[in-house]
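Researcher: Please predict.
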Amino acid sequence: MNEEYPDQGLEGQNQDLDAERARLTAAPDGGELRRAAEPALAPPPTGDDRVDAAVAGLSRLAAGPAEEHVAVLEEVHGRLRDILGEVNEGTP
């Protein structure tokens, strides 16, 4: 442990390895382990319904294949960018 990296050297301490292993699943073909899908948590409301609707689009990531993630992220980013542009212009 040092001042720059205070957690360095603590790798084996206070870890629940059984819980970590429980979140791993084998690939359908018996290949290498990967993280099991965890239930998606809804983000807290932002106070702006437009932003909340845009961010809700991220929930499609859990159900879709990884190949579609970039398109979903770009769509959500575009919507958020448009909303921010409207806010900067003073349009509610």
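Model: The two ends are 50 Å apart (CA to CA).
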